[in-house]
Amino acid sequence: MASALASTEINPLCPVYAPFFGAMGTTAAIVFTCLGASYGTAKSGVGISAMGVLRPDLLIKCIVPVVMAGIIAIYGLVVSVLISGDIKSPMTLYAGFIQLGAGLSVGLSGLAAGFAIGVVGDAGVRGTAQQPRLFIGMILILIFAEVLGLYGLIVALILNTRSQDAPSVSTGGGTGVIRETPHTHLSLSSRLPSAVLNRAFSPIWYGYVARAESFA
């Protein structure tokens, strides 16, 4: 067993904790979008309830903010399903970081859109009860608030497709240890630009490189 472990190579670009970032991207996508959707639904629902006392005939017509707030959670659900389908072990840090960025993109964008929809929906339905001509203006404002979450969805989908560009890896010796297929003869420091290595945190970075090359 000792000889088998000694013959294996560990790729520092594919650590065992790499899938953690993909899982966090999945969590961020669904959690933040649901937070935005819940705030938008609750805030708009309070305004609709107050408006329904004065103008019950406009109750169904003013339900639009609640519907638009719920759509934001669908954005996060779609991205979460796509990211979770690509999580595997082993995987590269590149793919993990890309998936984390995709989840944060749609999650935080959905959170901001939900806040905007909640505030606009609450004030809009109250104003519509007193002046019905405000309804068209409220819808336009809600559309511009909704597209904030759509922007995050588009960026997240683009990032998720880029995660497929991660360098190919293979397991060696049947032990499940990652081995880098391209450029295995090069050291880690030789594949990094000199501008990165000359940063102010170069002592910390060189320590990390030294530890990584000891496993390569």
TrEMBL record:
Keywords: Hydrogen ion transport, Ion transport, Membrane, Transmembrane, Transmembrane helix, Transport, Vacuole. It holds the Pfam family ATP-synt_C. GO terms for molecular function: proton-transporting ATPase activity, rotational mechanism. It is a multi-pass membrane protein. NCBIfam families: V_ATP_synt_C. Belongs to the V-ATPase proteolipid subunit family. V-ATPase is a heteromultimeric enzyme composed of a peripheral catalytic V1 complex (components A to H) attached to an integral membrane V0 proton pore complex (components: a, c, c', c'', d, e, f and VOA1). The decameric c-ring forms the proton-conducting pore, and is composed of eight proteolipid subunits c, one subunit c' and one subunit c''. This is V-type proton ATPase proteolipid subunit.
